[in-house]
Structures are given as C-alpha cells and as structure tokens.
Amino acid sequence: MIYRLPPLNALRVFEAAARHLSFKDAASELSITQAAVSHQIKSLEEYLGVELFRRAGRRVQLTESARACLPRLREGFDSLAAAVEMIRERAEEADLLITAPPVFTARWLMPRLADFARREPKIELRVFASSKMVDAGALDSPTLVSGLDLREDASGVEIHLGGGHYPGYRADRLFGVSMTAVASPELAKGDPPLREPADLAHHVLLHDDAMELVAGGNAWQRWLENAGVGERVDASRGPRFSSNILSLEAASQKLGVALALRPLVDSDLASNRLCAPFKTEMKPQAAYYLVCPEVIADRPAVSAFRKWLLSQV
Amino acid sequence: MIYRLPPLNALRVFEAAARHLSFKDAASELSITQAAVSHQIKSLEEYLGVELFRRAGRRVQLTESARACLPRLREGFDSLAAAVEMIRERAEEADLLITAPPVFTARWLMPRLADFARREPKIELRVFASSKMVDAGALDSPTLVSGLDLREDASGVEIHLGGGHYPGYRADRLFGVSMTAVASPELAKGDPPLREPADLAHHVLLHDDAMELVAGGNAWQRWLENAGVGERVDASRGPRFSSNILSLEAASQKLGVALALRPLVDSDLASNRLCAPFKTEMKPQAAYYLVCPEVIADRPAVSAFRKWLLSQV
DNA sequence: AGTCTTGCATAAGAAAAACTCATCCCTGGG
DNA sequence: CCCAGGGATGAGTTTTTCTTATGCAAGACT
Fold it and tell me: Which of A59, A239, A255 sits opposite B143 (nearest CB)?
C-alpha cells in the first residue's frame, strides 16, 4: 500500500489555522510568522485545487468542505502523535499489546477475552482496535525479523485479515471469512420481503468503509454481481458508515441491509438480532491470522495468548 | 489542543522503510535516493532518542517498539489521506454528514437513526464516528462563520461532548452526562461482590482511551477520588482498550468494571446486560451538543435532522 | 469622515531542511 | 578471497520553508 499524501507540513499548518480561524494565532502556536502560515495555506490550496479559507476582510472563514474534513484530519494527527508517544514510552506498561480489526475485536475477541484474562491474570493487556489491519494478501515485509532487542518488555501481536503470507513472522490461521448480507429478521419478513438477492432493489443498502477495504472497493457492487443481480440493483445509494460495526447496528435497527463477515456475526444470527436472508456468500481469499515476529513468539505472554487463541478456534 | 508532532516527513519515510524493511526499496517508492532515507531515519531516531532499526549487516530490522507503533502510524496517514480525499471529492455524494463520538453513535444515535431515515428517505446520510469530538469546553474557533459557499451540497454537522460554547455555530444542547462504574450483573453479585466503591480494590478495572479524554486524564483515579476511595484502590492496573465501546463490551463479558457515560448506557442497564453497582456518579461539566455553522443551519437536510434530533431528547 | 489598528497577502532574500553524489564499509554468497 | 548488494557518511546542492518588510483592505475609534 503506497500512500498518496499531501504536503504534511502544510496540512499541519492548515489544521492549526482552522482551529484558530486566524493565521496570526496559528502562527504563534506554531512559533512561526503569520506570513509563513499564509504561504503554507496558499500552497496547500494550490496543491488541492480547492479553496480552504474564504478571506473576508480582516478575518478568514473556513469553506464547508474544509470544515467537514477537520475531524478526520485531527484524528490523523492524533494517531501520529499517539504512535510516536508509544515509541517514546517504550515498555507501554503492558505485557501484551493486541492490535486487531474493530469488528473482529468486538464480535470475536471480546466475548472470549474474559476467559483468557481469567486464565492468565498476571498478563497486563492492551487492546487496540485498528481499521488498518486488512492487507492485500501478504505483509510487504518479506524479511525474517530476528535480533530484536529482547529486553523490551511489551510484546505486540497483530490480527490480520489477509492472505497469510507473512514471511519472517509466525502466522497462525484462525479462520476464513465469507461476506453475506444481513438484516433485521423483521425487515426480512416485512413488506417488501427479502427472499432473493433481487429483492434488494426495494431495500436500503448500508455501506461502510471497512467492508470496502475487505472487498477491495465497491463491496456491494461486487457482492451483487456475485449473486447474479449486478444489473438489477443499484449499489450506489444508501447511507454510509465509517465502520462495519455501525452498519451492523444500523441493520439490526431495521435501517436496511448490511454486508457482514461470517463467522463474526454468527452470534448475532444465533440470537436473532440479525438474519442472513440469502444463501449467497462471497468468499474472499482472506482469512484472519494471528501474526507476530518469530523472535517474540516464544515469550511467555505471547505464547500463552497464541495457545489460548488457537484453542478458541 | 496543541499537537506535539515529530518531523512529519521523516515519519512518512520511516513508515515506508518499515513496510519494505529496506531503505533502498523505500527510497524507490518515494522517488528519492537511498541516502536520503538513511538520513531521515537517522534524524528521526535522534529526535526520538530511540533506535528504530537494528542494522544487521546488509539488512535492517525493526525494533519491537518501532513495529508496535506501525498500525497507529498507518492509521494516522490513512486518516490524513482520507481527509484530503474528502476535500477533493467535494460534494461527497451525501446530503448530510454526521460526525459524532463513537459511543454516542453506537449507543444513542444508531438506535434512533432508523426512525429518521424512515421520515426523510430522500436524505442521503453519511455517519462518521470519530473519537476526536470531545473538546475542553469550547471550540477554539471563536468567530462567526458566514459567507460559506452555499453551492456545496454536503452539509456537515457534528456532535460534540463539550462545554457548549461554540460562538458562530448553532449549538443545541442534547443532554448532560455522568460517569458511572458499570459491570456485568453476575460479576457485581459474585464473589467478591461489588457493594461499595472500596470493593473495587478486589476487581479488575477496565481502562480506555476515550474515557481518558472525557475525564481529562486518569479517569479511574479521578472517579475513585470522587468516590472517596482514591487511596484504597489502585487505579493504574488493568487492561486498556482503544475505545469505550470495547470497555463496555469487556465489562459485559465479566472481564472487569468499566467506566461508562450515562445516559448512553441506560439501555444496557435496562436490558440487564450491565449494571451500575454504585450510586457514585461523577458529573463532568460537559454535555452532548449538536453543532453546526449558522450558515448551513437552515438548509433542509440540516434543519430536518436538527428538529428530529431535538425531538428525540 | 478621517485616522488608526489589525490581520492577511506578497515579494525578495535568508535560513533550514531535504536531497544527491561520491565513496566507504560491512556482510554474505560464489 | 573476492565480489556484489545494501546501508552509512560527508560535502555540496537544491528545494522548501521561513522572515523581514511592506502593501492593502476592513473594522474601530474619535
């Protein structure tokens, strides 16, 4: 995955200027001059080809599109700050740091984690749900990782949805997934009912960024084509959420039909919170893997977790 | 909120180098020379005072702390890329973009949103859950926003947990919150039972980054002091999650005791998924507010949403 | 109204950061 | 043992970013 990123310093200046709604104040926050801010903003506007501020006399105002992207921008800088903070603080005061995709964490890991915590009460856990743990098939890091500094206390393991080729890492396959459409049982039996995929034409499709990532873009479109009704159902309309968890929640609230990953939603299906009205399942190559560098795989905390996780599959 | 950020270009180079585990390949991806990569990494290492790569002959390896921060780093860059993408694509293909804190979205907004969608089926929604919608009391932007380009189609509204001082914005108070301890009912009645705050000394405390933000740091510590048992219970131990939703999930799975915001968890309490064993509630100044710039407040999509949201309170 | 003040824009030059080139060094493969 | 591959290093160059100085327009003040 190659990032196509804008000039990062200009972005940081923009964020400060947007926060203060003043180039001057932003400048003083950043310990630079007002002129420097003005330059940076201008270059960013030229780079983007979009006006970010409207200059109204002696004050500046954000354009609506600039304002709308601020939360995401803040989130981005916040993650970066957290990332470096994490490096600085080293041991992290935890024995085991688990990084996993949000849906996996909420629907699969959390219901089981209490059991692990009971068995290994001494292991201090840290669970980080990150939407970036989906990879195209293999990590881009093809080399054997060895010679890590073993004095460091914290051990990081990751759970990836990917193809399983992680050379240099110990990767244990947990389970494969398949994409299926889910809805509230009442909705499926309602009017119009959901009996076959073509019925989706009369229903609201719920989209989310996470599923786009798993499917490699246009998740619903692909699923519909897979079901043979790509032509008959418009995949573009419908509300869009930032996370699959929200889509599932929306589906259970009868807002529409969402895409979900089995077996993660099996408990929702069993409890009748959701139902899967169609047999059609799209099976991506990907599966969930527990991934960690070989060199830390035999630390007590890591191997205990690994052993436990595999016993849960 | 002032960000303390490292040299951003160096971070980007580091990410590429970590991905390839090769300075040479990273260099070619970034269209610069291997020497440039080497310099950047070195300067970042000096800035952080931490070794990021271990040089082992002709190959480089990540140190464990460097590797552990990668997911967060990727998440950061990804958000930045998404943010600028959003500016570029302008209208966003949606009529209404709602940005709200994750717990609010999952526990309050989603259960009600189906109703809104039914009433206003024409309004194309986009819901973005962002953990950065908590502010210290007021937005830092004190100016009246006017003269936005009204031709832009998408309207962005935000839901903030804050003090309600948003000059230039139309801010409608939704409801106040209070922090309370929650646990699984079985856990509370179990052995040792949870009868008064001091009993927490014998239980696992669940921490999360979101609650830290709300409380302004050391959430449990503050809550315990508020309950008068700051001395008797160790607030530092226990697993740590990246989101309050995960803490609540962990609590309901009997992993320990979490901090929660009322009234967001009221439905969990009503359904007996969770219980609030103590009367002690800590009431931060903050409340949830619907916030949007004055100038877009009267657009049809925005005013419909606003009216509906207020009717739900 | 006229004047002052405040804040952004702009141009030119200065400073700093980032990059390249040339070269060295080490390691592992043949 | 020698060679090739890949990273390190230092000097010098290019590019970016910043500052200083100044201009300009709008709101505040008298």
Answer: A59
Phi, then psi, of A97 in degrees rounded to 5:
-110, 120
| pLDDT of amino acid A136 | 56
| Mean pLDDT, all residues of chain B | 88
Residues 233-292 of A with CB under 8 A from B: 236-243, 245-246, 249-250, 253-256
pLDDT-based confidence at B92, cuts 50/70/90? low
Q: Which residues contact A256 (CB under 8 A, 6 or more apart)?
A: A183, A187, A203, A204, A205, A206, A238, A239, A250, B117
DSSP lists the bridge partners of residue A165 as A138
A154 vs B81: CB contact, 8 Å cut-off? Answer: no
Residue among A11, A31, A77 at smallest CA distance from B6: A77
Question: In Å, how far is B93's CA from the nearest CA of chain A?
Answer: 9
A15 forms beta bridges with none
Say what the pLDDT of residue A142 is. Answer: 38
* Phi, psi (deg, nearest 5) at residue A55: -85, 115
Which of A69, A123, A152 to probe the B interface (max B CBs under 10 A)?
A69
- Gap from A146 CA to C27 C1', in Å? 16
> Nucleotides on strand C with an atom closer than 7 A to protein CB?
6-12, 17-22, 26-28
At residue B194, what is the residue type?
A: L
* Sites in chain A below the pLDDT cut of 50: 137-151
For residue B264, give the nearest of B197, B180, B206 by alpha carbon: B180
Q: What is the tens place of the pLDDT at every residue in A83-122?
A: 998 888 765 577 899 999 999 999 999 999 999 999 999 9
- Cα separation, B156 vs B148, in Å, equals 12
| pLDDT of A90 | 65
| Average of per-residue pLDDT across B214-231 | 90
The three-state secondary structure class of B281 is: coil
∠ CA(B303), CA(B305), CA(B308), 5° rounding? Answer: 105
d(CA A116, CA B287): 36
CB contact under 8 A, B48 and A143: no
Q: What beta strand segments (E) does chain A contain? A: 53-56, 59-62, 96-100, 125-129, 155-162, 169-176, 178-182, 205-208, 240-241, 257-262, 287-293
Is the CB of residue A10 inside 7 Å of nucleic acid strand D?
A: yes
Q: For residue range B256-292, what is the model confidence (pLDDT) as tens digits? A: 999 999 999 999 999 999 999 998 899 888 899 999 8
Q: How far is CA B149 from CA A62, B140, B153, B245, B313, in A?
A: 10, 22, 10, 37, 31
Query: What whole-number distance in Å separates Cα of residue B136 and Cα of residue B285?
Result: 10
CA distance A9 to chain B (A): 7
- Chain B neighbours among A 39-58 (CB < 8 Å)? 48-52, 54, 56
pLDDT in tens, B38-87: 999 999 999 998 889 988 777 888 888 888 889 899 999 999 999 998 88
Segment (H or E) for A294: none
